[in-house]
Specification:
mainly alpha, 2 strands, disordered C terminus
Length: 260
């Protein structure tokens, strides 16, 4: 099965629902293991930074949160585009599921950034280009959720939120390249294509924390998609049949030929 066939095969909620259910628990376990290892290395083993002292350790929370927030919005915009063009129901549900997770990580990025910036810059907040675009990212997530809750008709809400997500995606390149385009207080990238400007134990801890953030975010999004499918598809025969046929303590299996 090539990539396009794989993509369209799981575009049906009935096929995607069992897949999501099978992935949630392994992703949660992986997130807990890598998170514990990363935080132990970062806060208990890695040495203090030569310039920033102990205060740099907030990087193990700030960087993963920032990366997940940006990528969550990029995925939200991608699935919004797919939903508008191909009109697949699951695409909009994936976008809706990404928004709360993205908002949480965007808020965490701003909070940890303030905790990091205060001892380094002497201020909790400055109107730096990276900080301002990060704040806009959080507002876009919150605006998406507000718009979703304000429209009663699901199809109209899907289209309106998709348009907002696509317009908001213009903020992503500004956010990513702001430290290159303008003379900002925010430091440049720690991990580059040419290598990482940090000690190996620091880099290992950071990468483990990033894996933990990615996998935990994926688990929460998949779990939320499950709930949205049950809510949106409650009237369909395939879901009622799945719920009726499956044992109470076992995951339901998808029908053989569900419609998109």
């Amino acid at each position: 099965m090539n990539l396009s066939k794989f993509f369209f095969w799981f575009a049906a909620p009935a096929r995607f629902l069992p897949l999501a259910g099978a992935l949630v628990r392994p992703l949660q376990i992986l997130a807990l293991l890598t998170g514990a290892a990363g935080l132990f290395l970062g806060f208990g083993v890695a040495p203090a930074d030569a310039n920033q002292g102990e205060g740099y350790r907030i990087i193990y929370l700030h960087v993963p949160a920032s990366w997940v927030a940006m990528f969550a919005y990029a995925l939200m915009a991608f699935w919004s585009f797919v939903g508008l063009v191909w009109r697949t129901r699951l695409s909009h549900l994936l976008s809706h599921a990404l928004a709360p997770t993205g908002a949480v990580f965007a808020a965490l990025s701003l909070i940890t950034g303030a905790l990091w910036g205060q001892p380094m810059w002497g201020a909790w907040w400055v109107w730096d280009a990276r900080l301002t675009s990060s704040l806009l990212l959080l507002l876009l997530f919150l605006g998406y959720l507000a718009l979703l809750g304000a429209i009663d008709d699901p199809q109209r809400a899907d289209r309106a939120c998709a348009v907002l997500a696509l317009l908001g995606a213009l903020n992503l390149p500004v956010m990513y390249f702001s430290v290159r385009w303008w003379n900002t207080l925010h430091q440049g990238a720690t991990i580059k294509s040419s290598g990482a400007s940090m000690a190996p134990v620091m880099l290992t801890a950071l990468l483990l924390c990033c894996v933990a953030a990615w996998t935990w975010a994926a688990a929460t999004v998949l779990r939320r998609v499950q709930l949205l499918i049950f809510e949106r598809e409650a009237h369909t025969r395939w879901l009622r049949a799945m719920q009726d046929d499956a044992p109470a303590d076992a995951p339901a299996s998808a029908p053989t030929d569900p419609a998109l």
